[in-house]
Amino acid sequence: MRYCINCCIHLLPNDLHRQCFRCRGPDHNNQKCPVCRGENKIPLYSDSKQMKWLAVLEVRTDHCESWNGLFCLRKGKLCSLMFGLIIMTLVMVSYILTGAKHGLLLIPSPFHYGAFASNPSLMDNESLSDMKDHYQPSKMNISYVKDYPSIKLIIDTITSKIEFITRQRPDLEELRKQEPHMFSVIPNKFLPNSKNPCWYEEYRGNTTTDPYATNSYALYSKRFRIIFDYLRKVFWNHLYHYKDKHYRLRCLPHFYIIGQPKCGTTDLYDRLRLHPDVRFSAIKEPHWWTRKRFGIIRLRDGFHDRYPVEDYLDLFDLAAHQIQSVLQSDAGKERGKRNNIIIGEASASTMWDNNAWIFFYDNSTEGEPPFLIQDFIHAFQPNAKLIIMLRDPVERLYSDYLYFASANKSAEDFHEKVAESLQLFEGCVLDYSLRACVYNNTLNNAMPVRLQIGLYVVYLLDWLTVFNKDQILILRLEDHASNMRYTMHMVFQFLDLGPLSEKQEALITKSPASNTRRPEDRSLGPMLPTTKAILRDFYRPFNTKLAQVLFDDAFLWKRT
């Protein structure tokens, strides 16, 4: 049984309810209608049973027919259409935002996000060290072969901004102001009867004093504690006693293998240490000049206490003990005979890693570091010898990726990371100099792959502003792999090492290669041809300049 909700009158089956002025009357007046005014309301009966008064729902409609007929249908369709458009818009916005973040857009974004923000309100040091908070790196669409033209435009922009400008070398007094303690520890003259730079330093401790108690290398790494446990046991046996005072022999390296990573420096180190006249630091890569002296163990972990220069010198104590034994025996037997033992250090970060400068040197010029690692090494050791091992920068980058990437490694993932890194580098060179971008900590940490390490000529030119060209030996890994005997002879001659017996030479040159690619990385295969073409284009102008500086077209890497 149905009822009219306006006047509570029973509806007939054919829905013709003409008695109700509210429902059918065109001249219906709300003020005159007793039903609308609420008068004479009577209980509603359903099946001869009286309903409760509170159960009666009175609904008034002030407009004409609410949702009935054709008008109601059209309004419903309109609402449905509007609702659908809203949903579609939300889906598209979500797609665009997600695609821009993860590199899934079908069309590359026209916006390139750089490593720096052009914000004049930021101080120089803030705009470089804190810039990671001001931008989010974006990824290009990776359709591999199809996206080559888009990436080529980025490379063309980078190439157009390349300028090799000679840097201003700081004077000695400026360096002293920056590192007064280092200058107070290391003398400006060394023992004349030692080929290696060494000097005697007074030791004021007693027999109960642990000389290595505060050494940061021993405190932060369990691997080095065994070495320092041995050094403690033999320490007092190697002190030099003179006029009731105790002296210890301190040494710096005679030569440095300064770079580059994944270019064969470990293999060169392992072979050189087999030479009877060569010693190395207690650990292969102390990274003191580039990181530890600034308190950096891993940059992503923040800063720790700075490693003082004494901690670095402790690493050469084993070699210093052997040099001292030669000097003492010579003093008693053959005065005037020179010590020929030399010490090397093989931190592959020395050539390129100046990322920490922004946190310590605030008088920068347009984002460029005012002091570089080589400035300080030259201040103490103007006659130091430097060895650099290089390889095709394209292959170096892929090897670097395979070695340091932790998960989800693949040729496709490498391609995506290269594309993103190129975008970031482009954004930097649009606003800053090439040197500022190469040495920028924020950019280098933001790039998924270390493109900058392959810009060999940028670093080399900066080293040549401090050291003479004949103090630097530059080798190619490709030559070392194909003719190891030849490259090792070049190194022996450069370091002025004595002759070897056939057995000694065979041991050095015929031992297996060190630090080769891991089997699981070999299974991933080579990089994509498109990725190789992109990287060839990117590194080409830098390789060309390197070949010009060295007068050697082999550094163009055309045949690899």
From TrEMBL:
SUPFAM superfamilies, per database record: P-loop containing nucleoside triphosphate hydrolases
- Give coiled-coil spans as residue ranges: none
Q: Which Pfam families does the annotation name?
A: Sulfotransfer_1
> Keyword annotations for this protein?
Membrane, Transferase, Transmembrane, Transmembrane helix
Q: MF terms per GO, please?
A: N-acetylgalactosamine 4-sulfate 6-O-sulfotransferase activity
Transmembrane feature ranges: 78-97
Task: Tell me the Gene Ontology biological-process terms attached to this UniProt entry.
Answer: hexose biosynthetic process
EC number from the UniProt entry: 2.8.2.-
- Which parts of the sequence belong to the Sulfotransferase domain? 253-517
Q: Which InterPro entries does the annotation name? A: CS_Sulfotransferase (IPR052654), P-loop_NTPase (IPR027417), Sulfotransferase_dom (IPR000863)
Q: Tell me the protein family, please.
A: Belongs to the sulfotransferase 1 family.
Name of the protein in its database record: Sulfotransferase
Gene source species:
Platysteira castanea
